[in-house]
Specification:
Jelly Rolls; 5 helices; four-stranded antiparallel β-sheet; single chain; alpha+beta
Length: 236
């Protein structure tokens, strides 16, 4: 996916502070109330299905509320009824927490997708600047070494940049090896002198296997505004 994801309502610093503070308060309450069960104790607990949940409610509504004399002394009526309210509230909270967790995960995925696109554009721009800036070149070298971006060897792919709306002819291509789109734009790969059907589209972060006989390829950047980057295996 090459497009940026639109975040309808970006979270502000104030929003994040509120979320952290509220969740911290909730965690403090729940941790204090948490029941320290052993695995054996937890395994021996009676499971309460929706049907049994309904049975508990009916016992309270039909018997306990209408005739407390029917309740044996071993059962504390106040606690029994309070526990019904507690379970109801905790189930509602649990449902909200699941919804919040789902929303949180979606927000993180969308933001980090956009961050990767930004990072690629930044690095692409630095690579251009580094050609005439020794300081930027050294910083870029250090960055690539830190993140294991090694120079191409006979067993590694060669990285290439391609300008917006650009076309590059690449020779001595190793067939059967992957062509990887490392940028944020859509690229096409065609066999030189091939037919109209011998063209492959490669989405950002996508890859295709170079077909047999495609030792010379023509790579085209379909974006009119953004440069691209790709890697391909070459004979050395």
């Amino acid at each position: 996916m090459s497009q940026y994801v639109t975040i309808p309502s970006p979270l502000t610093t104030a929003n994040l502070t509120t979320l952290n503070t509220s969740q911290a308060a909730i965690n403090t309450i729940l941790e204090a109330a948490k029941v320290p069960l052993t695995p054996d104790q937890e395994g021996a607990l009676i499971g309460v299905s929706i049907k049994r949940d309904s049975e508990i409610d009916d016992v309270n509504n039909i018997f306990v509320k209408n005739n407390a004399s029917l309740v044996p002394k071993q059962v504390n009526i106040a606690i029994f009824q309070q526990n019904i309210a507690t379970v109801t509230t905790l189930k509602q909270l649990h449902a909200m927490q699941l919804a919040a967790a789902d929303a949180t995960e979606t927000i993180i995925k969308a933001i980090q997708h956009n961050q990767i696109l930004d990072k690629r554009l930044i690095i692409s721009n630095i690579e251009v600047v580094a050609k005439n800036d020794s300081g930027a070149a050294q910083q870029l070298k250090d960055y690539k070494e830190k993140h294991n971006h090694k120079k191409a060897s006979t067993s590694e792919a060669t990285e290439m940049d391609i300008a917006e709306s650009g076309t590059i002819k690449v020779a001595k291509v190793l067939t059967g090896k992957p062509f990887v789109n490392e940028g944020t734009v859509i690229l096409t790969v065609a066999k030189e002198g091939g037919t109209a059907s011998e063209v492959l589209k490669v989405n950002p972060a996508g890859s295709v296997k170079i077909p047999k006989g495609w030792t010379i390829i023509v790579v085209t950047n379909l974006s009119k505004t953004d440069p691209g980057k790709f890697s391909v295996f070459l004979e050395h």
